[in-house]
Amino acid sequence: MAFITNDCQQVSFDDSFIALTERERKALEKSWAKIFADEIFPAIDEERFSVLYSNKASRPNTSVNIIIGALITKEFFDYSDDEIVENLMLDFHLQYALHTTSFAEQPISDKTLSRFRKRCYDYETLHGVDLYHDCVKDLSGKIAKIIKLNGRTRRTDSLMIYWRVKSFNKKE
Q1: What 3-state DSSP class applies to 60?
Q2: I need a labelling partner for 169 at 20 to 30 A (CA). Which of 102, 126, 155, 163 fits?
Q3: Segment (H or E) for 112
Q4: pTM for the predicted model, two decimal places
Q5: Residues 162 and 150: beta-carbon distance below 8 Å
Q6: Which stretch, 55-64, 98-107, 123-132, has highest mean pLDDT?
Q7: Are residues 88 and 105 in contact, defined by beta-carbon separation less than 8 angstroms?
């Protein structure tokens, strides 16, 4: 599979975004998808993943920024692979966030995600470099903005809270 970057980020004439009402556009502009589409998606460095693909002329890869964006939103919403694939087909927020509103068919499947993770794993095993982790680490400041994470606020792990409540209830 040959590596190609995703340079097509323009709205096409048959883009479903054009059909939105003014009210729907305003709602979309206020959602998390707008920040993701404008700040995180364009900041995904696809080139770092070129090492996972062949230099030979062959079928092009699914756009890496769409795969990475799908994997990040999958974690945001705690989706399974099947759920992110289904929600990308049906949820306009996800399509907008991943710049796929003009696609006749959404470009990822559960196999796309598992094969990409396998390529990343194989590369890490061979070279000791976790490409996905490094990419997300580079995007972490922008991601923190989306989830409104304040670095000065100390947070308690929800699992700790669960065990505290559980042990407290046992004492009664």
Answers
A1: strand
A2: 155
A3: helix 110-127
A4: 0.77
A5: no
A6: 123-132
A7: no
